[in-house]
Amino acid sequence: MSNEVKDLLNALHEGNVTLDEVAQHFRTRKWPRRPKSDPASYLDMAAAELQDPDPYIPGSFDDVAAAYHQKKISRDQFRALSEAVADAQRLEDAGG
């Protein structure tokens, strides 16, 4: 199954778009987020550590991390795209 983030990352890997183009697109999109639950105690925190990892969310930062681990993007590209996603989330948090 394809999604917008994977399509952009594949296009970057294939040289069809530039890093700047992908980063700009990442800065302007809304990123899905995982719901946060703050543990009430250290026992809750320890129990949370023993749970399975969060499930994959298509079209999320999970796709960027996967592309890096699959060596489809370089460390520098990963850093630039991570910053672009963080910029988008900060803007959203600020109400923008």
Descriptive account of the structure:
The protein is mostly helical. The protein has one domain. The protein has five helices and no strands. Helix 2 (19-28) runs parallel beside helix 5 and helix 4 packs antiparallel against helix 5. The mean pLDDT is 91.
Concise summary:
The protein is an all-alpha fold.
* Rg, Cα atoms, Å: 15 Å
**Uncertain spans, ≥5 residues at pLDDT below 50?**
none
SSE arrangement, N to C: HHHHH
Number of helices: 5
C-alpha end-to-end distance: 31 Å
Helix share of residues? 55-70%
The largest pleated sheet is described as: none
Q: What is the beta-strand fraction?
A: under 5%
Number of strands: 0
List the helices and strands and how they pair.
Layout: H1 4-14, H2 19-28, H3 42-49, H4 61-69, H5 75-93
Helix pairs in contact: 2-5, 4-5
Which structural traits does this protein have?
96 residues; mainly alpha; 5 helices; 59% helix
